[in-house]
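Figure S7 source data.
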Amino acid sequence: MSSSGRTDIAPDRPLPEAPGDLLDRARAAFLGVAVGDALGATTEFMTPKEIRVKLGVHDQVTGGGWLRLKPGQVTDDTEMSLCIARAVSDTGGWNLRAVADAFAGWLRGKPTDVGATCRHGIRNYMLKGRLEAPPNDGDAGNGAVMRMAPVALLTLGDGEALDRLAVEQAHLTHNHPLSDAACRCVGRMVHRGVSGSAKDDLYEEARGLATLHPAFRFDPYHGEASAYVVHTLQTVFHHFFVSSNFEECLVRIVNQGGDADTTGAIAGMIAGAFYGTSAIPGKWLRKLDEAVRSETEAHAVRLARMSPLLANVWPRRNAEMPEDYEGRKGR
Ligand code: MN
Ligand code: MN
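Tokens for the predicted manganese (II) ion complex:
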């Protein structure tokens, strides 16, 4: 990475066979983040038993929860993902400093919710201009994984770029080997899903993570759904692989409670990429905040079109990075 935080993404891949289908699944991946976030925020920090007693089966976008959200309102998971997407869109490519600036602007706007590690990392950037949080053994939270959708979509067709950008964006706030590995794995699952791979191929990715870091083993599943990235991904993997459609996967996830908006967002990302937009229940999409819905869809399409996988299919627009971009520190 150069000192300006720029990383170039190489194009030139063979043309995919059904780019329209790929774009549809790309849209569903980003929409899935927002839908899972909005659905899961209601049951965040509850236990499965508390959910059963209070709500029966939680399967509608109703808002509420400890943040007292409006129905369809999203939280930091979607908002930070949109920050990354806007930074890419504004600068026409990957620019880590622009992402950090977007996070800083978001934090200054007093978001509804922000994780402690995210806040700490963003402050670190605002005060010292550092694009990498110091390694933190004690904190392997899920805050970097939850915002992987835009990075995965931008790097479709280039696994090496994915690995690099996943860790760059992660280290703005989370610098931990388990978080890094989780970010790369979820990104690869999104790549596979969008590309139309079989579920077995996504399973191989999840199993690969558990081979590399046995803490991530998810079979048998022990029911812990905390913000610890290991628990988060165990929950996402278990419910994604035992379910057979988007709705079932997400309903299972958010009724597991714990960090339900974030397990919902990550599961929505993977399941969206795998099943496509037609699998996302209309009753959930209609409740989703309209501005969030249209912005996630627009960014998903734009990011995917900029990716090495699809850049050759449509004329590349806004894909050049301004040479004079200096970041917007102190904005
Ligand atoms: Mn959240
Ligand atoms: Mn959360």
